[in-house]
Design a protein that fits this description.
The complex is a heterodimer of chains A (about 800) and B (about 290). Chain A has about 800 residues and is of the alpha+beta class. Chain A is built from 20 helices and 29 strands. In chain A, helix 18 crosses helix 19. With about 290 residues, chain B is of the alpha+beta class. Chain B has 3 domains: about 45 residues, Uridine Diphospho-n-acetylenolpyruvylglucosamine Reductase, domain 2, CATH 3.30.43; about 120 residues, Uridine Diphospho-n-acetylenolpyruvylglucosamine Reductase, domain 3, CATH 3.30.465.10; about 100 residues, 2-Layer Sandwich (Enolase-like, domain 1). Helices cover about 35% and strands about 25% of the residues of chain B. In chain B, strands 4-5-10-6-7 form a 5-stranded antiparallel sheet, with helices on both faces. Chain B contains 12 helices and 14 strands. Classes of the chains: A alpha+beta (about 800), B alpha+beta (about 290). At the A-B interface, helix 4 and helix 20 of A face helix 12 of B.
Chain lengths: ~800, ~290
């Protein structure tokens, strides 16, 4: 298949000493497993640091009629008690809209609620005290009188004319609507041989990062300088936010994110309690720290998903999928998140529907509604599991209706290798996908015929097993089309500064950030390969606005593809600088020299001519020995943004093998397989672990995770005992393999891999459960597939 | 998630602990492993003014065979101790079976037998076990020592027969006899989670049939519940066929149990799982036969 392609240009990285494609251990792994990580709560607190705690709304919807903080102000150790109105005096509120989501609306959001609370858990009053315990003691002394308002919780009910309004100034609870039409879907349905349909529900999730949201702000009034240590994916975005909303020159704001204990998209949104913490530091001229605890993380971290999708698929007699009609209703909580909005999840869900397949007739209708619940916004694999879950469930139903094996049915309908570049009916541009190679590889990897034989044999013993597939596509490497075009001050470019230090080591300052996924290892591999040094001689610096160039950082699987390409370009530039200098010293044309393992070598013979260490010594300490007029350029700096396509696409297929206990409804995961194509694999170990971690999150969606709300908008399971995250004991072995179709829009060819596992895992598991239940005439179309839902589908529970 | 301010005293003896409780009538709590109490305090669901730590009273950690062939288990026995004890494995296999369902290793290393019983969580395994085994609960209080049958000890959600100032010091139970058999099972969403439904059972077996059995279901009400009608059906001499006995027991279960609805599970789901569990646990007991 690869031979059909234009020849791939020779890569600077295909060098004898390249680290690309090698499972190099992460330089930070030893530090992290030895407990030497440096998370925000580990930062040595400045003298006089105060600890913040927040009183949160106990109601989903209410008017604040009175706040009495007198007793809290007088409590021991308390330095400051602030309300929303007081924070507003130093901090401008925000509205989570962007212009490229036409018609998207949201209300003004204050760091702390002013007069009106719109979700249970919304911060209302902040306290800064000498200890967190003292701050919490003071919270218990605050009296707030509320007048309860009727809550809006159900997304369908939110749009009824008689529904209460969450933001009366908006006139309705509709935040955003979008229709995507291509071809003539209605006609295709009229002509269809078979139509399958479903009413799908996807539960709300909470991200549950190991490290909770954390911020340590230190405002120095003498210089009006603000230093913020924060557990964030996006230090530069936060620098810009703090500068603009607190009225400080951007140069005066320094944001540092050292180790970050997981983010999954949760740590790039603006949170009222965090901004209020920073504002309290500005008010006091003193350091203030806020570490969210689990009880407040559940109702205040952004939530994810929460879709109800009614969808139909039209199929011709020969098994060709001709059309899909999709209606997605998604509830985003009380506000559209700032600054990235809450429209992206629905937008991507509605546009990714049917994405892997050849169908040309599509009608998608999206409505995004406000609810009196925690704000929903971008989380790992934004919109993907919804589109994949709906499409792949319908594909399985269609295969069964036509009487074809589900894998064979997919083969007949997947985009073929000869169509690229291809624009999907929803407007997505696919440079080149590898669906059929992935399907073939997966079929071999899982030994599909043997599993079907096992399934039949197990049935004779009363053991109920099922096999499920999910083909997926994944959006990565986002360019300015993602946010910048909508007016957001969120950059899509990255920057890198590479320096040969006097020791001969390479210092790599890069704008992408480390969230625990191994970004720094990837950057070190690329820098070492591009310059020609040993990886242990590269020191990567990330997550510090004062030490690294301005850049987009880490989200939407952009680290390797955009940040990595930036490092590669910069590395090649530094190598050229160093070879020019070496050529002058050695009186040779630079083209006849190379750098390998930290040595300047003769290109022709590979013979060592001079070490980089020696070159650095001369350049830094004895430049007097260089010819007149020669200046050693020991630093290279470059920026890079993807051009040529708005964002990249990867693809792959997953399979799940399950055993269903049809008496109890419990599901045992027997095995899981993934074959995916992230383009060039830079570090197989890290790529596979990204896939596995993503699959585990997808399994969480399929079987366990769901924020349960009462009709009154109370979060009912906001603890780790009640909200079920996937745990190791229940996880199957996850087998990962790859097809590699590098993108030609970059030299590195990496497309990103962070969303892939999550994108498809849940659909594969649900399809496997439904495959198992098929002989019983039962089918589930709701995630998570809890034992109770399975027993209900089996008709075993009355009522 | 920080506890409200509290005082702390390490008790030097059981009587010292009892005295401290008496002196701080409403505001003192005993702390042992702290695996439930500390969480409740951090949630500020419990705000005792004084914690009386009995953790140093090593003699409460003993497992001993008494002269009258009973096993005496000290209240401070850790879950991990129960798991590791050859005496427990040999003499009360039900506890051995149950203990690995209690939370996770880290919690079992600190959590105590007496603490679990005193805490009386309706979804806990060990209260159901001591009810199935008809154990006795040994208590020291300001008015002296007393013994309460386990079947009268649990009175509600987190409520027990322990009076003001009383400390649970030990549990005694009969060692398993040659013709006895025990069974245990639970449905939990994940390994170590609170059970959706659980069952601790202990019975006598003869000629492949149960001749006596006690069924203590948990997580189906405010306390563990002895399913007496189902138990009667399982040993009904008028029904010689074990499959028929089981079927009647499953039907009778709806008279014994009235499980609650909660966000994680409906009453109907709990009832159905209880029936499934009954069949599996009894099937397992019959398959294994006496002495285990």
């Amino acid at each position: 298949m690869m031979s059909d392609r234009a020849p791939v240009p020779p890569l600077a990285l295909d060098r004898p000493n390249s680290y690309i494609g090698r499972s190099v251990p992460r330089p930070n792994a030893r530090r992290l497993v030895q407990g030497r990580g440096h998370y925000t709560d580990d930062v040595a607190a400045p003298a006089g640091v105060l600890h913040a705690a927040f009183l949160r709304s106990p109601y989903a919807h209410a008017r604040i009629t009175h706040i009495d903080v007198a007793a809290a102000k007088a409590a021991p150790g308390v330095a400051l008690v602030v309300t929303g109105a007081e924070i507003d005096q130093v901090c401008e509120p925000w509205v989570g809209v962007l212009s490229h989501f036409k018609g998207l609306r949201s209300a003004t959001q204050h760091a702390l609620a002013v007069d009106h609370v719109v979700w249970q858990g919304e911060p209302v009053v902040g306290v800064a005290a000498l200890t967190r315990a003292m701050a919490e003691d003071a919270l218990s002394l605050i009296e707030i009188a509320y007048a309860e308002l009727p809550p809006v919780t159900d997304p369908d009910a939110a749009l009824l004319p008689e529904s209460p309004l969450i933001h009366p100034e908006l006139g309705s609870n509709l935040a955003f609507a979008l229709t995507v039409e291509s071809g003539d879907a209605e006609a295709a349905f009229r002509d269809a041989h078979t139509v399958v349909s479903g009413d799908f529900r996807f539960g709300r999730h909470s991200p549950v990062t190991l490290e909770a949201r954390s911020v340590l702000a230190d405002f120095n009034p003498s210089e009006r300088r603000l230093t913020v240590h924060q557990s964030t994916q996006t230090p530069y975005q936060m620098q810009d936010i703090y500068a603009r909303h607190l009225g400080l020159p951007q140069a005066n704001v320094h944001v540092i994110a050292k180790d970050v204990g997981g983010s999954f998209g949760m740590k790039l949104h603006v949170y009222g309690d965090e901004v209020a913490t920073v504002a309290m530091s500005v008010i006091l001229g003193r350091a203030v720290k806020f570490i969210a605890d689990r009880l407040e993380s559940f109702p205040s971290d952004i939530h994810a998903r929460d879709h109800r999708v009614r969808a139909r698929m039209a199929v011709a007699a020969d098994g060709e999928i001709t059309a899909m009609i999709v209606d997605d209703l998604t509830g985003v909580g009380a506000f559209s998140a700032y600054p990235r909005t809450s429209a992206v999840e629905g937008n991507q869900a509605i546009r990714l529907m049917g994405g892997p397949y050849k169908l040309r007739h599509y009608s998608g209708n999206l409505r995004v509604v406000f609810q009196n619940k925690a704000v929903m916004s971008q989380y790992r694999a934004v919109g993907h599991p919804i589109a994949c879950g709906v499409t792949e469930a319908l594909v399985d139903q269609a295969a069964a209706a036509i009487g074809l094996d589900p894998l064979e049915f997919r083969r007949r309908n997947l985009l073929t290798d000869d169509v690229y570049p291809y624009t999907s009916p929803t407007g997505y541009l696919f440079e080149r996908l590898s669906h059929h190679q992935c399907v073939d590889k997966l079929e071999r990897l899982m030994d599909y015929p043997a599993l079907r034989a096992d399934q039949a044999e197990a049935r004779t013993k009363g053991v109920v097993r099922g096999i499920g597939f999910a083909v997926f596509i994944e959006i990565t490497n986002p360019g300015p089309a993602f946010y910048g075009v909508g007016g957001a001050r969120i950059t899509a470019q990255d920057g890198c500064v590479l320096t040969l230090e006097p020791s001969g080591n390479i210092r790599c300052a890069v704008s992408v950030t480390e969230q625990g996924q191994g970004t720094e290892a990837i950057m070190a591999q690329i820098a070492a390969s591009a310059v020609g040094v040993r990886i242990e001689d590269v020191r990567v610096i990330t997550g510090d606005t004062a030490a690294t160039p301005y850049g987009g950082a880490t989200w939407a699987s952009r680290g390797a593809g955009i940040g990595g390409e930036t490092v590669l370009i910069t590395g090649k530039a530094l190598r050229a600088n160093l070879l020019r200098l070496a050529g002058i010293l050695l009186q040779m044309p630079p083209d006849n020299l190379d750098i390998s393992d930290g040595l300047i070598v003769d290109n022709a013979t590979g013979r060592e001519r001079i070490t980089l260490q020696e070159l650095a010594r001369i350049a830094y300490y004895r430049p007097d020995t260089l010819p007149q007029g020669v200046q050693a350029e020991l630093t290279a700096a470059h920026h890079h943004v993807p051009r040529g396509q708005p964002f990249a696409f990867t693809n792959g297929i997953q399979a799940s093998h399950v055993e269903v206990d049809v008496e109890s409804g419990f599901v045992r995961l027997l095995n899981h397989w993934v074959v995916e194509d992230c383009g060039r694999v830079i570090n197989p170990l890290l790529v596979d672990e990204q896939i596995r971690g993503g699959v585990v999150q997808g399994i969480g969606a399929a079987l366990f995770e769901e924020c349960l709300y009462s009709e009154q908008g109370q979060l009912l399971n906001g603890t780790l005992a009640d909200y079920l995250v996937p745990m190791a004991s229940e996880m199957p072995d996850i087998h990962v393999d790859h097809v590699s179709t590098p993108t030609l829009h970059s030299e590195l060819g990496a497309k990103g891999v962070g969303e892939a596992g999550t994108a498809g895992a849940a659909a594969a598991v649900l399809n496997a459960i439904n495959d198992a239940l098929q002989p019983f005439g039962a089918r589930l179309s709701q995630m998570p597939a809890t034992p109770e839902r399975i027993l209900r589908a089996l008709g075993k529970l009355a009522g | 998630m920080k506890p409200a301010p509290f005082d702390y005293v390490r008790a030097e003896s059981v009587h010292h602990a009892v005295r401290l409780l008496a002196e701080n009538k409403d505001g003192a709590r005993i702390i042992a492993g702290g695996q439930s109490l500390m969480t409740a305090m951090n949630f500020r669901m419990s705000s005792p003014a004084l914690l009386v730590d009995i953790g140093e009273l090593e003699h409460l950690r003993d497992i001993t065979l008494t002269a009258d062939a009973r096993l005496r288990i000290g209240a401070l026995t850790r879950h991990a101790d129960l798991d590791a004890s050859p005496d427990i494995a040999a003499h009360t296999p039900l506890l051995r079976k149950a203990i690995r369902h209690v939370a996770h290793t880290a919690i079992r290393n600190r959590g105590t037998f007496g603490g679990s019983l005193s805490h009386a969580d309706p979804a806990s395994e060990l209260p159901a076990c001591v009810m199935a085994l008809d154990a006795t609960i040994h208590i020291v209080g300001p008015d002296g020592d007393r013994v309460v049958p386990a079947r009268h000890f649990f009175t509600g959600v987190h409520e027990t027969a322990l009076g003001a100032g009383e400390v649970l010091v030990a549990v005694e139970l009969d060692v398993i006899k040659a013709d006895e058999v025990s069974g245990f099972g639970e449905f939990a969403r994940r390994q170590g989670d609170y059970a959706m439904v659980g069952l601790a059972a202990h019975g006598r077996i003869a000629a492949g049939l149960l001749t006596a059995v006690d069924l203590a279901f948990f997580a189906v009400g405010s306390t563990p519940i002895l399913a007496r009608r189902a138990a009667a059906a399982l040993v009904d001499p008028a029904t010689p066929d074990p499959a028929q006995r089981l079927q009647r027991a499953r039907e009778a279960l709806s008279l014994d149990l009235d499980p609650p609805d909660d966000p994680q599970s409906s009453a109907a789901m709990r009832m159905e799982l209880a029936r499934v569990l009954l069949g599996r646990v009894v099937g397992d007991m019959l398959a294994r036969g006496a002495g285990a």
